[in-house]
Amino acid sequence: MSTHQFQTEVSQLLKLIIHSLYSHREIFLRELVSNASDAIDKLRYLCASDEQYKAISFDPLIRISFDAAAGTLTIEDNGIGMNESDLRDNLGTIARSGTRRFLDAMAEDKKRDSNLIGQFGVGFYASYMVADSVAVTTRKAGEEQAWLWTSDGKDSYAVEPAKRDGHGTTVSLQMNDDGREFLSRWRLEELIRKYSNHVAFPIRLSYQEDEYDDKGKKTGKTNQKDEQINSAQALWRRPKNDLKEEDYVEFYKNLADDEDKPLLWSHTRAEGTIEYTTLFYVPSKAPFDLYRADYQPGVKLYVRRVFITDDNKELLPPYLRFVRGVIDSEDLPLNVSREILQQNRVMSSIRTASVKKILAEFKDLAERDKDAFKTFSDNYNRPLKEGLYTDFANRDAILELVRFKSTAADGWTSLADYKSRTKDGQKAIYYITGDSEERLRKSPLLEMYRKEGIEVLLCNDEIDELVIPMAGKYGELELKAVNRAGADQELNAQRDKGREKDLAPLVERLKKALGEAVKDVKLSSRLAESPSCIVVDEHDPSMQFQQFMKNLGQDSGADVKPILEINPGHDLVKIAETEQDESRLSDIAFVLLYQALVVEGVPLKDPADFVARTNRLLARSARP
Ligand code: ADP
User: Fold this and answer.
1) Is 446's C-beta closer than 6 angstroms to any atom of ligand 1?
2) Same structural domain for residues 160 and 243?
């Protein structure tokens, strides 16, 4: 026998699981059953695709049994099994990088959500919530030697040679005091039905039943019974009419390891040149790794009911990475590899049709259930917007689905809502980008739009600046950023041409005073109360976006300069007009620029200069 220390992460993880998930400890059974089912999936796949395994024939089975007197619970499968090194890699070390992330996410997640466990694949260790020690007897398909792995789940585990009939794994738990409640036929049946009803293989429960005589009296003897508890069908293969809401919900909970009801599901069977079934779900809460590059994709691929992969990011486009579900194809080869999948014509048709179907479901949700769609937007609006620049073919459909904050309404606004509120003759949809909704609402750039009753969309997602210009147009309405030159045509109509002429010399003097600090100085049509604002040229990135890229370490080096716009009606501008002294005019010019940058949340390169110039102006105005 050889004894090994757990990797540090494993010990940490065990402690965390035991302490933080204790109130959900019944999920240990679901985790073990799901491992058993995965192991059978793996072997079935090999038998179907690998010459070496073709000779193995087996009837998939998961058996659960218990001995209340001895305090043991056993979960047995005839799946792929493990050899010595598998045991070490899978149960002794954290081979999968997922576990580190799990620990980090647990530390972040104050609610200690039990869903995290399955999402990271640390399910086996959940056993230690109910057991003092666990023994795993296992034999790998195609190998002769079986192995016994044992551990009390503290610091170390032992591995030794063992005997086992046939391939597969037997996990035996020596229950602790809290685990004893599970050593009951009724409790186990309840849990299997609750969590594992749609596991695709039969789950049988073995139990002792009292024997009765003809008169209905106990004989004092017991009989060993063995009964299948779950429905053991691939739910997605059953006709829709046979399925009730509970069936879909329960299947989802298992599939996605989520305790909450899904927001939406869509079950499609395609029969034509290409045959396949899809069942997609949208979780009611965004997966925690939605914004991580190493997110776990949520769609499982089956070929003729044989599980192929759940780790392929190509099954759906990344902007739909929050979708969970199953794709089962009749036409793909069983030994389809990742590379083949990528270029496979069948797969690409399934994918294209699935994306269309999913987007249509979103649209339907928006039309039929406002509250649910609000939840949808709260969670998924941002990834969906990524689709505007990654999925050109579906751009129009996505444009109907994305939502915005707006100056004209609370909550979410669609482009259709905006369009219905446009003023007569309005030619564009206006939007402003920046990093905080609150700051955007107060931006001086909105003053004239507000006064004129023109609605402006408030776009405070970092990606807005990238994706909204890509969208270009909504119907005949162009999308225009108010913080850009050229977005003010509709406001320009109001301009006083005479005043413009009078101010031309001031504009020239300001330009000279500001020199390299600005790209240009212009009279503004956008301002009502504020003296100045900054905009960027039509094709330049906004100041906030440049800042964002710098923060990401993506400084292009090319400093794109703002255009300073001044409000012809403002007192400060009038004062500037009469100022004869060029150095004092320079103070006014820079204060106008600095202020405009500050309200937009753009950090000043030289804050001390701002303070010095402001103080000089204040001191002067305070003088009698
Ligand atoms: P997960 O199943 O999510 O990967 P677990 O900690 O539950 O995480 O299991 C770790 C690994 O141990 C599994 O990925 C699998 O390789 C192996 N394993 C667990 N249970 C079994 C089993 N019943 N049969 C074969 N392998 C198993």
Assistant:
1) no
2) no
